[in-house]
Every structure is written in structure tokens, then in C-alpha cells.
Amino acid sequence: MAELKLMKGNEALAEAAIRAGVDAYFGYPITPQTEIIEYLMMEQPEKRTGMVVLQAESEVAAINMVYGAAGTGKRVFTSSSSPGISLKQEGISYMAGAEIPAVVVNVVRGGPGLGTIQPSQADYFQSVKGGGHGDYKLYVLAPASVQEMADFVEDAFDIAFKYMAPVLILSDGLIGQMMEKVYLKEQKPRWTDEEIYKMHNDWATFGRKNGRERNIITSLDLKSEKMEKRVHRLYKKYAQMEEEDLRYETIQCEDAEYIIVAYGSSARIAQKTVDLARAKGIKVGLLRPITLFPFPKKQLMELTKQVKGILSVELNTGQMVEDVRLAVEHKVPVEHFGRTGGIIHTPEEILEALQQKLIKG
Amino acid sequence: MDIKDIIKPENLVYKNTELMTDNTLSYCPGCGHGTAHNVLMGVIEEMGIVEDTIGVAPVGCSVLAYEFMDIDMQQAAHGRAPAVATAIARTWPDKYVFTYQGDGDLAAIGTAETIHACNRGENIVIIFVNNGIYGMTGGQMAPTTLPNMPSSTSPYGRDTATTGFPLKITELVANLPGVYSASRHAVHTHKHVRKAKKAIEKAFKDTRLKKGLSIIEIVSNCNSGWKMQPRQSNTWMEENMFPYYELGDIKVNGKLVNKQ
Fold first, then answer.
1. B118 is in which domain, residue-wise?
2. Domain with B127 in it: what CATH number?
3. Does residue A21 sit in the same domain as residue A166?
4. A71 contacts in B (CB within 8 Å)?
5. How do A179-184 and A3-8 pair as beta strands?
């Protein structure tokens, strides 16, 4: 039954996964995302839907469990936070190479190293520039609310299976920990074995049924010509993602003279900055990338026709700002403002930075 | 001359099972992997379980096992096969799931995944081929390399004072309650092949009965890595590997075998 609840972002994501009919979760505890596995263990989804939940011995094991189960056509996900996501990069690269559909959630904390358990957006580069070894990209969804933590689970699986590729939900400690009301959809059934046999017979490894040829899940091609073809096939998918599945939101951009570009928790805070600025008579708008790859490059270029400057607001020392600059090709000044180490910027701070870096400067 | 000209039907004593593909094996002539593959596929064929069996290949010489085993297979990252197999078995509880791993994969980089899959008593079969060396990368020291045995990364022989003693990982995991059966075999003679085959068949049946994990270690040769002729390598294996890696049962149906 659909219902409205007050929940933490992490819990909403976990509940949405059960309701979406996901088959399995494999994870390892790490702050600030541990509520995901705790919630799943408490809910006993094996009784509700038959969903498997297993606490792995490490993030490395967890991502390889995802590889195994997802390689049989099941809908499987894992979650972690920054240091744990670094450990998962090997498995993510293998999944990109072997073209396995699965979902990975990163509830980002501050780094580098063990860093801090406070919110951060310092994993932007790792998320959109590959992360693991080799030529690949991830489709990256960046939720900015508890509602989106819930909604993006199903969206992520749809994209993963559309492109046969791993998808990343890039959240952060703020969105994961804060409580908001969330609309939860009705329970959907999990795919039956027969449905999986039918839908994924051409690639999944569930046993060589009915005398068909064997299916193989691998990222290995020792013949260079074949390997190059494989990489080109991946990049065709990424081009198609840019064409068909870019997502972004614009807030008061129609008459804006200055644009703030921000995603996730930064976008939530910057929304307030837009109101503060407009109360002072400064026409500011917000462009919120919902997908970080694909990135709203054309939309940013289009905005250069009307704006005097762009401020990239991030919880880091300047990562997405590089992609903003690449997108606008120096047509307008692009500056960065960010706090790091786990500190969250205030709407006032952002406005002050905008005035100092773009208006007075 | 092609390999198919050499192996003419009239020369065949033992034929490949139907579940071995026609692809030419990538293993060195004289290597035991081919026989181990054939024994394993023979069991799956005779049990009639190809429609419900999923294999997991490792990184190492047998990384391309899926080219030779005509069944659904996944190729896992180095050492991670037990984690991959765990998830397949958990999400498809009525299937047969096995890993096929070498000693570097299972006993070095994958130690954590091996021990924890064993400890959880996953309903999977681990086929562990131990040749005491890293074959694929060209003969480096493995955790299973015998004392004083030379390799490309222990060119003066394995020094146990600085590199430790060869790891008997099958004995180690046999101590975990999750492991139902553990045994050590060889496949270089018909007698040994028959014993190994029996053990593998029992292991598959036990996972279906949800008895927990079974590990079958196959002590094998690596004539290239050991820098020996194939026949010489088998003799060397009998004289040097078998005394350290004693063949036979280590744990049977949940009970450790008492070896005095």
C-alpha cells in the first residue's frame, strides 16, 4: 500500500528498494550509511518479498556479491560511504566491463583517507571520471531530498537494465541522515524465475537452459581488436545516455543574471540563496544537475547567452566546477565556492561568495 | 598438423565429456588443469544438472575456464570467486554453484573471501587447484610454494624465515563449522581421477541438500613454472608435494578426520 512517512534518507532508500521488488542487497557497515543495512535487517524483507539481505565480510566482498547475483539477471544493489566506495572500485570497473546491470549507492563523507563522517561532495571526480581502472563511465544520479533517495532506486534499476551497466546513486551524509516526509509507492512483485529466464536468456548466467548456448559473464578480451570493440560499445551507451537520459532541474533561471550550479545537498541550500538574492534585487537562478553523468552541458551553454557569471557550489574544494567550465567554454566567468571537511555552507555564505566573486569582482 | 589430427577417434582411450567445448585448451602441454576440467564437467554431465549449474572462474591460468566448460559461467575478479558464488547461491537456492580457483587466487589475494564463504557455510563447491606457484604470470612464489622451492620471485628458493611456510588452507578452513567436507586429491593417474570424481559428485549432492560448503583440493603440477618436463613434474609432485599436501579426506560430513 502506498503511504506517506517521516523517514531518514537512508531508511527511505532501503524501504523503496524492498517496495521496488529488488532481489538482493549485499553491504558492509560504514557511517553515515549504516541505516540502510540496519533497516533492511530489521524489516526482514526475505519474509515480505523474498529479497535476500547479507552482511558481507568487506566492501570488496559485497561488490563482488553484487557482480555474481546481478550476473544472473537478478536486481541487486549495494551501498557504502566514501572509503568503502574506494574499495568497491575494482568490482565496479569489472561490472562496467562485463556489462552487468546493478546499483551502487554512495552516501558520501569527507575525505581523503578516513576523513570525517560528516557530509561532503568530495567524491564527484571519483563518481563521474571513472573511479576504477579502465575506459568507462557510470550513470550518476544525485538525490537532493529524502523523496529522491526513495524514487531514484527504481529509476537507477531501470537505467541499469536499459543500458546493461552499473548505476551510481551519489548521495551524501546530509541527505542520508536527515528526516523528511516521503511518499512510498505500493509494493511491486519481484521478478519470478520464469520471467528472468525469459527476459535475460540471451546474457544471464542462471544455468544453460533448454539447450541454448552457454552464457558468459566476463570483462576479459585478450584479443586487442575485440577489446577495442567492447570499449567502443560501452562508449556508444554513454553517448546514448547523454541523448536520452540526462536529468536536471532549473529554478528561477528564466530571467537570471547569475546562475548557481549545485547538486544534492548543496542544491537544497542554494535554493535558499536564490530567495535571499532575489529579496535583495539580485536576479539569481539555480541549475541543479540531477544526473552528474550525463551532465547538462548544452543547457549551461544556452544560459551563457543571458547570464553574467556562474557559481559552482559544492561541498569540496572545486570538482564539478571543472565540468561547468568545460561546458561553457569560457563564454562567462565561472567561479567555485565550497566548504569541506564536513562543514555545510549556509545560504548567506553562498550569497556573499557570489557577490564577491562574480558581482563586485 | 592440427590437434584434431593427433587425437583421432581410434587413439582415444578416455574421451572428453560433452560439456567440454572444442576450443583448444590454453594450458601448457602436461598441465593437470585440462584433466581437472574434464573430471568436473563429467560430474555435471552425469548428474544431468547443466541447466541448473553456474560456475565461477578465477584469475590465473584458469581465467579462461569458461572457454572450455560448456556451461553458464562468470569470470570473477582475482580472489573474489567465493563472494561471487555466495551471491549466486543465495539468490538461486535451488541451483548448483561452484568456483574453480588456483592457489594464488584462493589462498593469497582471496583469503578473506575464502574463509568467510566457508565460515558462513555457503552451499557452494570450491574446486581448488594447488600447484604451488603462480602459473599465469610466469612462475612466481605462491603462499603454497614449498620450502626452498625456487620460483621467479624466490630465485634462491623459498626462505621460510622471511616468507613463512606453505599455507595448508584446506586444513585451515576444514576447522570451520560451515565446511561440511574437505578433501585433497590429484588427477595425474586414472586411480586419482576416479577418487577426485567421486568426491566432486558427493560435494555437488551435499550442496543441494544444504549441508554447507565442500572444498575439493586438487594438488597438480606446473611443469612450465617448475621448469620441468611434464612426466618429471608429476614425479616431483609425488615426491615433494604429496608428503606436505597429504592426499585424502580432511573432513567428512562435518567431522574432521583424525590423522595421527
1. 25-256
2. 3.40.50.970
3. yes
4. 74, 84, 88
5. antiparallel
A305 touches chain B (CB under 8 A): no
DSSP state of B140: B
How many Å apart are CA A111 and CA A120, to the nearest integer? 8
Same domain, A174 and A264: no
Distance CA A193, CA A330 (A): 53
Answer whether residue A210 is part of any domain. Answer: no
Q: Which of A149, A168, A193 is the last residue of a domain?
A: A193
Domain count, chain A: 2
Q: What is the pLDDT of residue A143?
A: 98
Structural contact between residues B53 and B98, judged by C-beta atoms closer than 8 angstroms: yes
Give, in degrees to the nearest 5, the angle at Cα B35 between B32 and B37. Answer: 105
Which residues lie closer than 8 Å to B134 by C-beta, 6 or more apart? B60, B104, B140, B141, B142, B151, B225
Determine, for residues A60 and B85 on separate chains, whether the beta-carbon distance falls below 8 Å: no
- Would you state the cell numbers that stand for residue A301, as one nine-digit string? 551553454
Predicted confidence at residue A78, as pLDDT, reads 98
Whole-number Å distance between alpha carbons of A333 and B246: 73
- A56/B88 Cβ within 8 A: no
C-alpha neighbours within 13 Å on the C-beta side of residue B224: 16
My answer on whether A83 and A161 are in the same domain is yes
* Nearest residue in chain B measured CA to CA from A62: B83
Produce one character per residue of A110-144: b if its CB has 16 or more CB atoms within 10 Å, e if not. Answer: bbeeebbbbbbbbbbebbbebbbeebbbbbbbbbb
Domain count, chain B: 1
Residue B258 has a pLDDT of 83
The tens digit of pLDDT for each residue in B107-157 reads 999 999 999 999 999 999 999 999 999 999 999 999 999 999 999 999 999
Cell of A199: 527476459
- Test the A interface: residue of B49, B84, B96, B208 with most A CBs within 10 Å: B84
Interface of B with A (CB under 8 A): 50-54, 56-57, 63-64, 66, 69-77, 80, 83-88, 90-92, 95, 112-113, 116
CATH number at residue A113: 3.40.50.970
Query: Nearest C-alpha of chain A: how many angstroms from B160?
Result: 30
The verdict on residue A214 lying in a domain is no
Residue pair B67/B73 in contact by the 8 Å Cβ criterion: no
**Which residues, 6+ apart, have CB-to-CB distance to B232 below 8 Å?**
B223
C-alpha cell at B52: 541448473
Contact in structure between A174 and A344 (CB atoms under 8 Å): yes
What is the H or E stretch that residue A83 is in?
helix A82-98
Contact between residue B229 and residue B223 where contact means Cβ atoms under 8 Å apart: yes
> CA–CA distance from B35 to each of B40, B76, B189, B220 (Å)?
9, 22, 10, 10
Domain of residue A317 covers 248-360
**pLDDT single digits (tens) B143-202:** 999 999 999 999 999 999 999 999 999 999 999 999 999 999 999 999 999 999 999 999
| Cβ(B144)–Cβ(B153) below 8 Å | no
Q: Do B91 and A72 touch (CB under 8 A)?
A: yes
DSSP state, residue B240: I
For A288-326, b where at least 16 C-beta lie within 10 A, e where not — what string? bbbbbbbbbbebbeebbeebebbbbbbbbeebbbebbbe
Q: Looking at the structure, do residues A69 and A170 belong to the same domain, yes or no?
A: yes
